[in-house]
Amino acid sequence: MNSVLRHHRYGRALGAGALSVALLSGGTAGAFAATSTPHPDAAATRTAMPTKKPMPTRTAPMKPMPTRTAMGSITVSATHKTVRHGETVAFAGRVKGVNAGTTLVLQHRTNGKWTALRTTTTVNRNGSFTIRRAFTAKGDQTVRVVTKDGKVMSSPVSVKVS
Question: What CA–CA distance (Å, rounded) separates 72 from 103?
């Protein structure tokens, strides 16, 4: 009988030690779980409070930033809307908020992506520019003019090459 009482006493000491460790580690939920006989209603009414605010979850992907910036603008138009294969088209326009001497690049859209063509020019002192390009691929060509750093761009312009 003595051994049973001794084991019972050690069991209580062990339970009290586990409860103390749980309280010291900051987890009140662990302390409630460490009690040997919880009251049936205690688990249902007491909940542990989080120590930090939960991070907000993102439900939808972020939208990309608009491509035009408040820094400046580029307007462009084509001298011809329809040209023959190999014929040169001049793209003329004006810039606002872009310094004279800034390099402009002609880009075309292929498979939904904008890629730079090897056609460039610089902005004149009065803010105007002209880029000339001969197209060798037949079909509709969609182009735009972009500053070399890519921060300012024009709206797309279409040219039909036959």
Answer: 14
Closest C-alpha to 158, from 48, 93, 76: 76
Rounded-to-integer distance, Cα 162 and Cα 64, Å: 35
Q: What is the pTM of this model?
A: 0.56
The mean pLDDT values, 10 residues at a time, for the chain of 162 residues are: 51 54 53 53 55 58 46 93 94 95 95 94 96 93 95 95 94
**Distance from CA of residue 89 to its chain's centroid?**
36
pLDDT, tens digit (0-9, with 9 covering 90-100), for 30-62: 445 555 555 555 555 555 555 666 655 555 554
Q: What tokens were used for 112? A: 């939904």
Indicate the DSSP class of residue 124. -
Calculate the alpha carbon distances from 17 to 6, 36, 162 in Å.
16, 12, 88
Evaluate whether 108 touches 122 at the Cβ level (below 8 Å): no
Alpha helices (runs of H) in the chain, residue ranges in sequence order: 2-24, 28-34, 40-45
